[in-house]
Amino acid sequence: MIIHNEETYSRKEMETLQLSRLQKTVERVYHHVPFYQNKFKENNIIPESIQSIEDVRKLPFTKKKDLRDHYPYGLFAVDMKDINRIHASSGTSGKPTVVAYTKNDIKNWSEIVARAISIAGGEPDGIFHNAYGYGLFTGGLGLHYGAEELGMATVPISGGNTDRQITVIEDFQPTVIAGTPSYVLKIAEEMSSQGIDPRNNSLKYGIFGAEPWSEEMRKVLEESFDIKACDIYGLSEVMGPGVGMECHEAQDGLHIAEDHFIIEVINPDTLEPVADGEEGELVFTSLTKEAFPVIRYRTGDIASITREKCKCGRTTARMSRVKGRIDDMLIVRGVNVFPSEIEHYLIQMDELAPHYQVHLKRKDNLDIVELQVELNEKIYQKLNGNMDHESIKGIKKLVQHSMKNHCLISMNVNVMPPRSIPRSEGKAIRVVDRRQETELLQKI
Ligand code: DLL
């Protein structure tokens, strides 16, 4: 196990390093990004205002809208001649957000991801099967450069073409697999359906993230492949994958690369900090980025943090699993629920496969929730594929009951045959929100 110096710093050592890097970052954006300079001036801030690490709270927040408003290059802090790489996030609504890296940024990012892979159990002499999508998405190239930096033999297979993924896993003998948990689960499912035992291969560790996933999904993935599965977190605006990484020793929260980012957790309504251990919105300030520094970026992701030393020996702050994005939270008849909470309970039901989708419609000004679940393959075989069988009604009632009990929402449940819910090759689509559309249709 390689533990880097910075990962075991005392709080004081870490904060001293963070303060000097924060001062440089504030100086940089003040002089090179008019958006930040204007915002700082509105708040009476000059670079010299930052004298202690707590002073970060004097700085104004940055939101996704600010990035969109300056599409594509308006928030870059260096000239285009110094930009080495550009990525963009998919942008489900409107324009994507565009981010950039200098040569030095790529070097830092690669080192951060190399560190993350080794936190998760990866070793330089291993083989890295990278099933994250390559392209504008930061997942593919981010993990690729990190794995190479660590010295692993890196297989840039990208997402999709599941048959080829299986052949490569069988033939190339990877030790680590990385991808979205939903897609890697699809690989396991496909292997089983081809009569290949996914437990019977060279894989030892899984690095999964880019979408919310539950503790129960971890168990499913670990058992499916006989691996240790760890959570990786990140977002393009802040850097990409590697901002946080769970260690394979404790699997108890994601270690934040605090030498490169300041993490805060705030109440999204009052914008005040919440106590350690309490859930809130994650906010990040970059400390070493040159091309695209971000100041107090509001991620929209809900999690909590702890600063207690981890069993693995690292002292860096750890964030909990991300429950979901505030935007993805379902608010149904006054009750708030995240898809990851639905997943938590669904996966515990042996009758079902670990796939689901929530469909939202609107009728007579009321939200209607339909939860689509899939019957487990073995039960389906037992019933000879008869989906009208009495026991299907029983399963439906069971799911309805569990959702009402645990998530406090009444749902229409649709139990579907195995493999009916679309699988994704990247981030899974858990919620299909047709409320606006169905409301409009009713009005016509
Ligand atoms: O998803 C970066 C990434 C790539 C992370 C590969 C991990 C592995 P974006 O496409 O910009 O970047 O999406 C960022 O995805 O704000 C979260 O809402 C969500 N997300 C990322 N990692 C996790 C995770 C990449 N481990 C957005 N758990 C973030 C839950 C995650 N949600």
Automatic annotation (TrEMBL):
**Keywords per UniProt:** Ligase, Nucleotide-binding
Nucleotide-binding recorded as keyword: yes
What's the domain of life for this entry?
Answer: Bacteria
Listed under GO biological process in this entry are: phenylacetate catabolic process
Q: Where is each AMP-dependent ligase C-terminal domain found?
A: 334-435
- Specify the AMP-dependent synthetase/ligase domain's residue ranges: 77-285
Q: Pathway, per Swiss-Prot/TrEMBL?
A: Aromatic compound metabolism; phenylacetate degradation
Q: Which InterPro entries has this protein been placed in?
A: Adenylate-forming_Reductase, AMP-bd_C_sf, AMP-dep_Lig_C, AMP-dep_synth/lig_dom, ANL_N_sf, PA_CoA_ligase
Query: In Gene Ontology terms, what is one molecular function of this protein?
Result: nucleotide binding
Q: Does the keyword Heme apply?
A: no
The EC number(s) this enzyme carries:
6.2.1.30
Q: Which CDD domains match?
A: PaaK
PANTHER family assigned to the protein according to its UniProt record, in alphabetical order: PHENYLACETATE-COENZYME A LIGASE
Q: Which family does it belong to?
A: Belongs to the phenylacetyl-CoA ligase family.
> Subunit comment for this entry?
Monomer.
- What is the protein's known function? Catalyzes the activation of phenylacetic acid (PA) to phenylacetyl-CoA (PA-CoA).
Which protein are we looking at?
Phenylacetate-coenzyme A ligase
